[in-house]
Design a protein that fits this description.
By secondary structure, the chain is α/β, with parallel strands linked by helices. It has eight helices and eleven strands. A hairpin with a 4-residue loop joins strand 2 (about 40-45) and strand 3 (about 50-55). Bound molecules: 1-O-pyrophosphono-5-O-phosphono-alpha-D-ribofuranose.
């Protein structure tokens, strides 16, 4: 019998749309469509086992081999640099990592810039490259509040539609990097299940390319 491929999917809308692509590629798992609160689903027919994982934890499951492959945002890969292979840009979950501040904000070069963010490493690398002195304030959510309440001068955060910034009188100052969902693989699994993982990755790549063509 063929070995199962263990796949960590990010819980939520992104994961559900990614699963549809996997299903189209021939890796369906009917039990997953049944809903409910179960977190693990497998299909002996297609030799896949899916886990619903908190999006920011997918890379940990894959790095440690609890999952062979998974779908993680480029933001998480840049922030935590997990030791995994990045196989494919899935072209979904598109957004950008950006610096934002209150409308009308101007940098004062003489002062240390106070930066609130969940993405400490991304922010530090970005400002290091500019040789700018910063004070990082690590927050876990609702980052947009920080400049409004005077906790920070700027934020480094994910901007998707821009609505959260707009509704809080903030705007983007600089884009750091575009973000999208990536297919990642555990390094050992990639070696020992090379044929199965490559086959899956190629099928997903073909569907991704087809979708990009259709939405052009
Ligand atoms: C993310 C991000 C922004 C928001 C941007 O937050 O931190 O707050 O989405 O989206 P928009 O540009 O479409 O408005 P998330 O919902 O992940 O929650 P968080 O506050 O816990 O970071």
């Amino acid at each position: 019998m063929k070995p199962m491929i263990n796949i960590a999917l990010p819980k939520g809308r992104l994961g559900e749309s990614v699963y549809e692509t996997f299903e189209k590629a021939g890796y369906g798992c009917p039990a997953l469509r049944e809903g409910g609160r179960r977190l693990i689903f497998e299909s002996e027919e297609t030799c896949v086992r899916y886990f619903w994982v908190k999006p920011s934890d997918v890379a940990i499951y894959v790095e440690r081999g609890a999952a062979d492959i998974g779908v993680a945002g480029k933001d998480i890969l840049l922030e935590y640099t997990p030791d995994v292979y990045e196989l494919l840009d899935l072209g979904v979950g598109k957004c950008r990592m950006a610096v934002a501040a209150k409308n009308g904000f101007r940098y004062d070069g003489a002062k240390t810039l106070r930066v609130a963010t969940k993405f400490v490493n991304i922010a530090r690398t970005f400002y290091n490259e500019q040789s700018r002195d910063i004070d990082i304030i690590k927050l876990n959510g609702s980052i947009e509040l920080a400049p409004i309440l005077g906790l920070s001068d700027v934020i480094v955060d994910i901007v998707e539609t821009g609505t959260t910034l707009k509704e809080n009188d903030l705007s983007v100052i600089e884009t750091i990097v575009p973000i999208s969902a990536r297919l990642i693989a555990n390094k050992v699994s990639y070696k020992f299940q090379y044929d199965a993982i490559t086959k899956l990755s190629e099928k997903i790549a073909a569907l991704t390319a087809q979708r990009a063509q259709e939405t052009k």
